[in-house]
Amino acid sequence: MSLPKRTALSLPAPTGTVADTIALAQQAEALGYDDVWLADAGGLDALTLVPIILANTQKLRVGIAVVPAYTRTPGVLASTFSVICQNWPGRFIPGLGTSSHTIIENWHGLKLEKPLTRMTETVALLRTMLAGEKTAFEGETLTSKGYRQLPVENVPIYLAALRPKMVERAAEIGDGVILNLFPRAALPRIMEHVAIGAERAGKQAEDVEIVCRHMMVVTDDKDAGRAAFRGAFASYYSTPVYNKFLAWAGYEDAAQEIREGWAAKDRERTAAALPDSLVDEIGLIGNEAECQQLIREYAAGGIHTNIVSCIYPTPEIFPATVNVLAADRFSF
User: Fold this and answer.
1) Which of 57, 173, 174, 332 has its Cβ near the most Cβ atoms within 10 Å?
2) Angle at CA 183, nearest 5°, toward 177 and 186?
3) Which SUPFAM superfamilies did the record assign (predicted)?
4) What predicted TM-score, i.e. pTM, was given to this entire model?
5) Is 99 left (phi over 0), alpha (psi -120 to 50) or beta?
6) Predicted local distance difference test score (pLDDT) of residue 299
């Protein structure tokens, strides 16, 4: 089976309001997008927004990339997924991830410990709960005894992953793998680990949906787009999760410079550690035709669902970026 290539738009709206986010989802549907995908990193709660968007659109698939596995218990997730999937079967894709130290430890005051084990145990518990079975689970990071809910069928679980072990585990136990902020040259290596994980579970690698949120700026002013990327994501690569990932992807020197610049509280040095060449390897910055061609290259490299995320939402750039994958302007 060959999975289809899908176009998707990242939400919420730049204003951060519920009303504007609903309107943007409706616009995406009118433009012919297949999906909209939410983040769940504070502010507007993604798991609350999903049913609102589903109720206000006709056929869009709505995904989350990602719900942090540490901030909600498996019982809360299972009951929430059940409500949404019963009412809108086939239209909701919950994506789980370990998130980052900034979100889990600084924002929420929790410990980001044993991420691979935590993801594995979360998925195991979710599968049990969604099947309507009574829990009797004693793991390293999670326990649950005696919980039961009505079964609900065909709830997909997608998992976010960066480095090899998590990519393999995501492909092994998940229905899809969510990628983010990787240098393009690393994609073939990532896909090799998807294949390893899928094989462990007796699956074909091509049956595992690969989702990627692309940080995009549709503009002729590439310098401004690159500056926007640095402003938004230099801090990401200072966190242990993303810093180690950048080093694994082949940019050890940049990762070290970012660590040292961030530790010295030198934000200019930290941003400068992302040279134009590296920004262009990670972000999609250029005119419409250039960004569309990059999306086709990602699709050819194995990405099934390509999510457009406008990281520089000026009055001119935001609509240009939203329109880049409109059905009347783009096809795979």
Assistant:
1) 174
2) 65
3) Bacterial luciferase-like
4) 0.95
5) left
6) 97
Ramachandran angles phi, psi of 45, nearest 5°? -75, 120
Residues in the chain, total:
332
186-195 pLDDT per residue, tens: 999 999 999 9
130 within 8 A of 122, measured Cβ to Cβ = no
The token pair that represents 172 in the structure block: 């092994």
Structural domain boundaries, residue 49: 6-224+288-325
Spatial contact of 122 and 96, defined as CB atoms under 8 Å apart: yes
Cα 134 to Cα 291: distance, rounded to the nearest angstrom: 49
Domain annotation covers residue 118: yes
297 vs 250: CA distance, rounded Å: 20
The answer to whether position 52 is within a domain reads yes
Find the helix or strand (DSSP H, E) in which 211 lies. strand 209-218
Query: Which tokens go with 27?
Result: 């616009």
Residues 6+ apart with CB under 8 A from 291: 216, 218, 284, 285, 321, 324
Count of domains forming the chain: 1
Q: Is residue 161 included in any domain, yes or no?
A: yes
Does residue 330 fall inside a structural domain?
A: no
Helices (H), 9-114: 18-31, 46-55, 74-87, 101
